[in-house]
Amino acid sequence: MEGPVLPRGAWRRGHLSTPVLELRDVSLGYRTATGWLTACEGISFSLAEGERLMLVGASGCGKSTLLGAVAGFHAPHAGQLLLDGRPVTQPGPDRMMVFQEFEQLLPWKSVADNIAYPRRLAGTPRAEGRREAETLIAQVGLTGFADAFPHTLSGGMKMRVAIARALAARPRVLLMDEPFAALDALTRRRMQDELLRLWRDFGFTLLFVTHAIEEAVALGSRILVLSPHPGRVQAVLDVPDTLEERAALEARIHRLLLPEEVALHA
Q1: Cβ distance 49 to 12 under 8 Å?
Q2: Which residue, 138, 198, 224, 234, shows the most beta carbons closer than 10 Å to its own?
Q3: Residue ranges of the domains in the chain?
Q4: CA-to-CA distance for 124 and 35, rounded, in angstroms?
């Protein structure tokens, strides 16, 4: 197998402790027919180079809204959102998003053309984009499927293509919004392992939304726990190394997210 399109960490700038992304007292919401609805409020955290930060919380706490703001899809109504010290004002290839829907791929383009698409938009010559796409295809385990079309692929294969396409853009931050939620349990576990392997190869910076505590602990280096609506930061927790400590962390997050269930069984 060929090496990465870029060597591990090649698009990094600076040390692991250098903030790539900073949210300073960010609040987000929507205007509805009955007034203003606050999704999340007073959110502050930073994301370092090469870090894997998981956002967890109950449905409706603003996890996806927060990720969308980082992507530049909508602006905070309060606070600051900074990428490399500059305000985020619009979407850009420095923040690539992977959604949970399988149909995020362009159905009229082949696997290789889907993966090469961000590079083609950036002006990369077609032949060079194809070579990079084929290297990424091998790295995500889809050798032989370069000319296949999305409708011929399984859910897990489509997700691999979506991840490869995002990585092809060489983003500062890879954003993932519950990308494995629609997969069956076995495929989901395989994709979690695959994502960690790709992170070891490329050293990308990851901001990942999930409702699954086990997934957050399995994939994250840190976990940010949001309170129920409106979402506020309840805790920011480091993920330990040992299985015993990780089990204890899962239990702690469970207590934070479901205190009424804990009280019921006390």
Answers
A1: yes
A2: 224
A3: 1-94+173-266, 105-170
A4: 46
Q: Looking at 54-110, list the stretches that DSSP marks H as alpha helix, in order from N- to C-terminal side.
A: 63-71
N- to C-terminal Cα distance for the chain? 54
Residue 83 or 8, more confident: 83
In this predicted model, what pLDDT tens digit does every residue of 59-95 receive, in sequence order?
A: 888 899 999 999 999 999 999 999 999 999 999 999 9
Question: Across-strand partners of 29?
Answer: 38
Strands 52-56 and 222-226: parallel
pLDDT given for residue 262 in this prediction = 52
Q: Which residues neighbour 15 within 8 Å (Cβ) at sequence distance 6 or greater?
A: 49
* CA–CA distance, 95 with 83 (Å, rounded to integer): 9
Of the candidates 46, 4, 6, 5, the one whose C-alpha atom is nearest the C-alpha of residue 24 is: 46
- Answer yes or no: are the C-beta atoms of 36 and 30 closer than 8 Å: yes
The reported pLDDT for the residue numbered 261 is 59
User: In terms of pLDDT, which residue wins out, 122 or 25?
Assistant: 25
Cα–Cα distance, 153 to 105 (Å, whole number): 11
| Residues in contact with 6: Cβ distance below 8 Å, sequence separation at least 6, in sequence order | 170, 202
Say whether domain 1-94+173-266 belongs to CATH 3.40.50.300. Answer: yes
Of the candidates 258, 201, 211, 213, the residue with the CA atom closest to the CA atom of residue 239: 213
Cα three-residue angle 255-192-226, rounded to 5 degrees = 30
Q: What is the pLDDT of residue 132?
A: 92
For residue 256, the SS3 value is helix
The arrangement of strands across the sheet holding 19-32 comes to: 35-48, 19-32, 78-83, 86-87
Pairing, β 233-238 against β 78-83: unpaired
62 with 229: CB under 8 angstroms?
A: yes
d(CA 103, CA 215): 23
